[in-house]
Specification:
The chain has 141 residues and is α+β, with helices and mostly antiparallel strands. The protein has 2 domains: 86 residues, ATP Synthase, domain 1, CATH 2.60.15; 46 residues, Single alpha-helices involved in coiled-coils or other helix-helix interfaces, CATH 1.20.5.440. The longest helix is centred in the last third of the chain and has 18 residues. It is globular, with a radius of gyration of 16 Å.
Length: 141
């Protein structure tokens, strides 16, 4: 059955190998928009922007990973994400991500100082991605 096909996904950062397991598909935040990788996708390299990767696993569960930009490389039997950072929901400090979001928003709102708006925008995107992925963490009783 076509829906049962998987491919190997590997997520790497400079600090760690974050994940290596089979998936049914991946939805990723590309520089040109959101895109989906399915088994049998043609080889390609996509530029990623900070955001949330959605991984659909063989057991039909979804997993989310916050990435801080990078590249997604599709090969015939494996797809590799080379990310600036990658965090699972349980690894994210929500309070810290909220403070980073507030700092980035304040920098972007301050029109009087000479700020690097591209850097502040990227920081805001990373913080928003982390907060989105952290929201997928199940609440403990």
């Amino acid at each position: 059955m076509a829906g049962d096909k998987t491919f190997q996904l590997e997520i790497l950062t400079l600090q760690k190998a974050c994940l290596r397991e089979p998936v049914k598909f991946v939805v990723a935040p590309g520089q040109e928009g959101v895109f989906e990788i399915l088994p049998g996708h043609a080889p390609f390299v996509f530029a990623l922007k900070p955001g949330a990767l959605r991984l659909h696993l063989p057991d039909n569960q979804d997993r989310h990973i916050a990435v801080g930009g990078g590249f997604l490389v599709v090969q015939p039997e494996q797809t590799t994400v080379l990310a600036r950072s990658a965090e699972r929901p349980e690894e994210i400090d929500k309070a810290r991500a909220e403070r980073a979001k507030e700092r980035a928003e304040a920098r972007l709102a301050d029109k009087t100082s000479a700020i690097d708006s591209a850097r502040a925008t990227a920081a805001l995107q990373r913080a928003l991605a982390r907060l989105k992925v952290a929201s997928y963490l199940p609440v403990s009783p």
